[in-house]
Amino acid sequence: MTYHANTERGPLVFLLIIDLYMIVSVIGRNFYLAFFIFQVLLIIFTFLVIFLRFELSLKEDMLTFRTFLFAMTVYQKTVESQEINQIKFKRIGWGHKCATIKVSEGFNLRVANFHPKTIYKDLNEYANHYNIAVTKTKDFKRLEK
C-alpha cells in the first residue's frame, strides 16, 4: 500500500508573505547586504519547501520512503524488515499520531500526517508480521481509543 503526505502549507505561506514584506519594506532604504541576502535565501527555501511531497510504500518485507520536490525524487530510502530495529508510535501536537521507524543504519524515518489514516494500523500489523519491536506511548494509546 502507498501513503502520501504534504508539507503544512498554511504556516509556510504566512512565513513567505512576511519575508516578502520585509524585503519590500527595506528596498530603497539603508540596509545591510547580509540581511538582504539572508532574506532572499529564506524566501527561496520557503518557496521550495511548500512543494515537498512524501510517499511511503509498504510492500511485502520492504518499506520505501520517498521525498519529492515537484515531480523529482529528492530522497529515497528502501528498508527491509530485518534492518528495522523498532517502530515507536507517539502523539504529536494536540491530536495527531506519529510513528518513528528506527533503522540500524542511516536516518530514522518519521511518519506523520500521512493519508489514508490507516497507516498506523498497517505499520503495527507490519511490525507484528515481521517480529519488529513496537513501542506505544500512553498518549498514542489514548488516541487509538
Would you mind describing this structure in some detail?
The chain is of the alpha+beta class. The chain is built from four helices and eight strands. The protein has a four-stranded antiparallel beta sheet. Strands 7-6-5-8 form a four-stranded mixed beta sheet. A hairpin with a 5-residue loop joins β6 and β7. α1 packs antiparallel against α2 (33-50). The longest helix has 18 residues, at 9-26. It is elongated, with a radius of gyration of 19 Å.
Describe the secondary structure blueprint for this structure.
Elements: E1 2-6, H1 9-26, H2 33-50, E2 52-59, E3 62-69, E4 72-80, E5 84-92, E6 96-103, E7 109-112, H3 119-129, E8 133-136, H4 138-144
Parallel strand pairs: 5-8
Antiparallel strand pairs: 1-2, 2-3, 3-4, 5-6, 6-7
Helix pairs in contact: 1-2
Transmembrane segments: 12-28, 34-54
Keywords: Membrane, Transmembrane, Transmembrane helix
Largest beta sheet, briefly? 4 strands, antiparallel
Cα shape: elongated
Could you estimate the helical fraction of the residues in percent? 25-40%
- Whole-number mean pLDDT: 91
> Would you report the number of β strands?
8
Taken as a percent bin, the fraction of beta residues is: 35-45%
Class from helix and strand fractions = alpha+beta
Spatial order of the strands in the main sheet? 1-2-3-4
First and last CA, distance: 24 Å
Instruction: Give the uncertain stretches in residue-range form.
Output: none
Radius of gyration: 19 Å
Annotation field: number of helices: 4
Order of helices and strands: EHHEEEEEEHEH
Keywords: Membrane, Transmembrane, Transmembrane helix
